[in-house]
Design goal:
By secondary structure, the protein is mainly β. The chain has a single domain, classed as Aromatic compound dioxygenase (Protocatechuate 3,4-Dioxygenase, subunit A). 6% of the residues lie in helices and 22% in strands. A hairpin with a 5-residue loop joins strand 3 and strand 4.
């Protein structure tokens, strides 16, 4: 899949194809400071449980406690981090690591660290709750979630040697006693060849969320198509997203084509003039 726009060409880091069941489709183009790539998927692992009486302790400092109510949950699918996780891994042949930066632990990810300039886009708060399939879907507190996604026009920060200092739309938070984190961000755009999505990595503790080698899960989040189409159409900054979204479906997306049941957020307008999204995801801790 390819996205080509006018502007001087920069040479991105070499891409290493993820070793997953579903290979990532790379979207290569030039946009002055932007070179975009599609993000492929990984194997889906599912675990169900109905035992809600136990207490689980994950690797590191994260813990989960059962509620005593019989529940069922499944492990969220493993997906590729894509070529631009900027998490100290060798994706894109780039070992740059935003997780090591002072200030990466933050709830509002709309600006680069140390900057007050926010990226443009429709405001969005997204709440993620993490639970444990090994302990009756108990909340996992003390785990860390690293979230990142593209801008309203489909660009990622930290995707070439030219914009290392730009690290907007990336941040880390530790789950609270309810297993929950909330990020303040913008509605992600839709670039050519992928349905709109966000990436996240899960770490067993905030202290361990400093390098990709410590992660216990990588996945992606999906968003309701009809609502995003409405948002894109009503906001001029998403004009490219209108065209791109009209050209793809979940069935043809190389990550979500095998289903979105465990990765689909619930999303609605909020009283602040933006939108709120939420999702509960599970791992086997």
């Amino acid at each position: 899949m390819e996205r080509t726009t006018a502007g001087p060409t920069i040479t991105p880091f070499a891409i290493q194809a993820p070793a997953n069941r579903r290979l990532a489709l790379n979207a290569l183009g030039s946009l002055g400071v932007a070179t975009l790539f599609g993000c492929g998927g990984g194997d889906t692992e599912t675990t169900d449980t109905t035992d809600a009486t136990g207490t689980a302790t994950g690797t590191g400092t994260g813990t989960g406690t059962g509620t005593g109510t019989t529940t069922t949950c499944s492990v969220v699918p493993e997906e590729t981090a894509g070529p631009y996780p900027a998490d100290g891994s060798t994706a894109s042949n780039n070992t740059y690591n935003v997780l090591a930066l002072s200030g990466i632990v933050r709830s509002d990810i709309r600006s680069s660290i140390g900057s007050s300039t926010q990226v443009s886009g429709v405001p969005l708060t997204i709440t993620i709750t993490l639970t444990n399939t090994s302990a009756g879907c108990a909340a996992l507190s003390g785990y860390a979630i690293y979230l990142w996604h593209c801008t309203q026009d489909g660009n990622y920060s930290v995707y070439s040697s030219n914009n290392i200092a730009d690290n907007y739309l990336r941040g880390v938070q530790a789950t609270d006693a309810s297993g929950t984190v909330t990020f303040t961000t913008i509605v992600p755009g839709c670039y050519s060849g992928r349905m709109p999505h966000m990436h996240l990595e899960i770490y067993p503790s905030l202290a361990s969320a400093n390098n990709a080698r410590n992660k216990v899960k990588t996945t992606q989040l999906a968003f309701p198509t009809e609502l995003l189409s409405s948002i894109y159409s009503a906001n001029s900054g998403y004009s490219a997203s209108v065209r791109n979204l009209a050209s793809i479906t979940f069935a043809t997306d190389n990550v979500f084509s095998d289903g979105t049941a465990l990765e689909m957020t619930t999303m609605q307008a909020n009283s602040g003039g933006g939108y709120s999204a939420s999702i509960t995801i599970s791992i086997a801790a």
